[in-house]
Amino acid sequence: MADPARGDAVAQAARRRTFAIISHPDAGKTTLTEKFLLYGGALSSGAGSVKAREGRRSATSDWMELEQQRGISVTSTVLQFPYRDHVVNLLDTPGHRDFSEDTYRVLTAADAAVMVLDAAKGIEPQTLKLFEVCRAQGLPLLTFLNKWDRPGRDPLALLDEIHDQIGVSPVPVTWPVGLAGDFRGVVDRRDGRFTRFTRVARGATEAPEELVDPARAADEEGAAWDDAVEELALLDGVGADFDTELFLGGEVSPTFFGSALTNFGVRLLLDALVDLAPAPSPRADEAGKPRPLDAPFSGFVFKVQANMDRSHRDRIAFLRVCSGHFERGMVVTHAQTQRPFATKYAHTVFGQERETVEEAWPGDVVGLVNATDVRVGDTLYLDEHVAFAGIPSFAPEHFSVARPRDTGRFKQFRRGIAQLDEEGVVQVLRDPDLGDQAPVLGAVGPMQFDVAVHRLEHEFGAPVELSPTSYSVARRTDAASAPALRAMRGVAVFGRADGTLLALFESPYWLDRLLADHPELKLY
Ligand code: G4P
């Protein structure tokens, strides 16, 4: 029988905003997340809760030991909180210092992203790739220039840097009054009004805001106001105006100035998320046909994580709902195997904390426990078949050979490698002749290796040794080209579990030469 609530999916989707925060570690992602919760009314005990939760996670899980040591976060989690009459889903991206495929996968489940930059540092090299990926994907991007309470850089220079380095044009929606370090408030360029902030100790409560009209602001703020007015005239002169279409296409980024620590500018950013960021829209299937929001339930898995809870040895698939109404307990179909999948154990997951989810709507994320056989990119649906386009994998750029340190633990090693492969922690590349003996691990960011090594030792009891290889670039190839490539010097061909063949080259120069000399070879 049709679910009578299904028709509500369009209205429920319209209320939702699903986004991720991306930043370089230390730019203030955790602090901003905390402040969003504060403004969403979901944090009654004051700030510090996100950190406290992180602390608890560290105490109970081995990976968190790694997170603590290296200052990274491995697990992705989802926070949901109400704001105004909307429901906000914040997807947490792993805070790797360098690019990781995991982060990219999380972004495929987001409708927008907030890029947080430390205003004193601007764009830091290791994070550049992440921002570039957002740009390439056309993901609508809002920018928050954080830590304006401290001495920092010139705002116009920061805007130039963003434009030059990631190719997205920052369009200031607010503009700071007072130099970085003497931050008084922001002018909203949409209506010219000045919002004056007042500090509260460590931002434990919402920052008191006072709306001041321009004449009074000029009187009271003196030179700081005059400077801001001059800069605003400059911006108006270059036509740095907000354009919704360009924002939705990922070409311009509405930009906000603030200080997450003191809560300055947090409300304006959250308001903009609700007002400007897109609501979930129909997602295209493999053939490019959009599945209407009010079609029966469907969703795709953007992340799989095993053993999050060591005492349960479970496997959780994180699914983003794309259409219809999800109700816990419903039996859905796994598109890739056509097998039924029971959703009795549906959770929201925040580290070790889980809460049962009874229902969900487009844009929401559900953690499905014990999702054996379900892989990243897979689709689950009810009634009407759909398979969404898979999540593309990147060509790895770092390659290491993995061997168990203790050959007596080969079984554990094999099991661990297979698990990491399924989760996509690293790409596992096998030589058809060597099989599982010494697979090559491929990664887009080298931090993926640290996570793999740590998990193999601590979760699977298989300490490994990684040795570097001479390869530095990979391209997909096909079975017809593989024998010729294998016969060449400086080239190797490996297989992935999904059947893809990858040719590895010692240098980009070598690859270029091969491409020029052998146009008959398929390399892409
Ligand atoms: P991350 O998740 O992006 O890694 O950054 P996080 O929020 O943990 O912030 C990194 C550091 O920057 C923290 O300081 C945090 O307090 C500080 N910070 C965040 N936002 C602001 C801001 O708007 N202004 C200023 N001045 N500092 C900010 P910490 O010393 O590492 O930690 P803590 O002892 O303050 O918790």
Short précis:
The protein folds into 3 domains: 16-174 and 241-276, P-loop containing nucleotide triphosphate hydrolases (Rossmann fold), CATH 3.40.50.300; 283-381, 3-Layer(aba) Sandwich (Rossmann fold); 398-517, Alpha-Beta Plaits (2-Layer Sandwich). Helices cover 29% and strands 27% of the residues.
Architecture overview:
The chain is an alpha+beta fold and 524 residues long. It folds into 3 domains: 16-174 and 241-276, Rossmann fold, CATH 3.40.50; 283-381, 3-Layer(aba) Sandwich (Rossmann fold); 398-517, Alpha-Beta Plaits (2-Layer Sandwich). Helices cover 29% and strands 27% of the residues. It is built from 15 helices and 30 strands. The strands form 7 sheets. An 8-stranded antiparallel sheet has the order 18-17-23-14-15-22-19-20. A 7-stranded mixed sheet has the order 2-3-1-4-5-11-6, with helices on both faces. Strand 4, helix 6 and strand 5 (141-146) form a beta-alpha-beta unit. Helix 3 (49-60) crosses helix 4 (62-70) and helix 8 crosses helix 9 (223-237). The longest helix is centred in the middle third of the chain and has 15 residues, at 223-237. It is globular, with a radius of gyration of 24 Å. The chain starts with 8 loop residues before the first helix and ends in a 7-residue tail after the last helix. Bound molecules: guanosine-5',3'-tetraphosphate. Guanosine-5',3'-tetraphosphate (G4P) binds at residues 23, 25-31, 95, 146-147, 149-150, 259-261.
